Amino acid sequence: MKRLRFVFATFVALFAIFVLAGCGSGSNSEDSVTVGSQGSDLEIWEHIAKSQQAKDAGLKIKVKEITDGTQLNKATTEGQVDVNAFQSWAYYQAYNRENPNGKLAAIGTTYLEPLGIYSKKFKKVSQIKDGSTVAIANNPANTSRGLELLQAAGLIKLKKDFGALGNAKDITSNPKNLKFKEIDDTTGPRVLNDVDVVLISNTVALDGGLHVLTDSIYHEKLDQDTKNNVNILAVASKDKNNKTYKKLVKLYHDKKIQQYIKKKYYGTKIEVDKPLSYFKK
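RE: above sequence
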């Protein structure tokens, strides 16, 4: 009888330990999220994934590299990636227009990464000569963004209703008779020696050893005219209210994470912590 009571007591004790262990692991459980990205953004999310801030937020982040923007968006809508971090609001809008059956949803803003005008032949915009060739991105969102930057620099004028899918046909004034050459926007640094002027996004510029604030002859500033170029985090439309995914927005804007980003990228990723209604103003 005593032996039976001993065995029973031992069983109860072991069961209690098992239950407590289970409760303990539950309290420390993490939500898993796969973030798709590319270039310097990939490096940022790899840092965030390993950070104490991610652990404190209860997030286990897996970072997946997909270097083609269209494929990265498709991977997001198809569930291979939960959240992607690489595109501007304008790029996102253009993608949704072109893919009505596989739309994305924005869940928060991250930063403005200035687009720059680069040249090895000219040190100032005013020095650009008549008939110069300008290399510009061949995807809709970055084509229109580049043309708007050329207009801001005083080189061309565009139609009043110029939009996110605008192109060179919408130029109403081109006093320097600039010629436009469309290129894959990831090849900008490599064609600097081949053309007179190149428009390069900062992610691509950084990968090519260029610093937009010091190496470009003109670049975007953060204001109402450039708000469509602010980068966002995007998910499949069905996941727009996912609370776990939205934690990534707050995590990105954590003070210590921002200190890391500013130091590593020399202030070229300008933090933008705004509600999505910012784009509708």
